[in-house]
Each structure stands twice: as structure tokens, then as C-alpha cells.
Sequence to fold (64 residues):
Amino acid sequence: MSKVVVRNGNVESALRTMKQKNARDGLLKKARERQDGYKKPGVRRREKKNEGIKNTRKRERNNY
Fold:
């Protein structure tokens, strides 16, 4: 669980910071994965491979 300090009553900034921290930690992603239930190791491996391919294509697209 991430903690964020609200400074000078600036709640919007603190909320944005908290969302960024949660995204970096992968908190929401892990919760969604748990919601789906058990997946066989081969299925997890395939999904991870496809996600890596997708991220690589995204990075290549942004570099040009």
C-alpha cells in the first residue's frame, strides 16, 4: 500500500501522485489478475510473451 502526503491542501496533486505510484507498483493489474482466478503456467507464459511483444512494438513506434 502506497502512502502519499498532502501538502498545502493540494489534494489533486496528491491524488495524481498516488495514482502514479499505484501504476508503477502494478497494484491494479495484480488485483485484476487475481480476479480471473488460476491460470495454467503455459497460459501465463503466453500472455507474458504477448505483452512483451506489444510493449516492444510500442517502444519502437515511439522512437521513430
About this structure: Residues 11-63 form one domain. Residues 7 and 22 are 19 Å apart (CA to CA). The chain is about 75% helix and 0% strand.
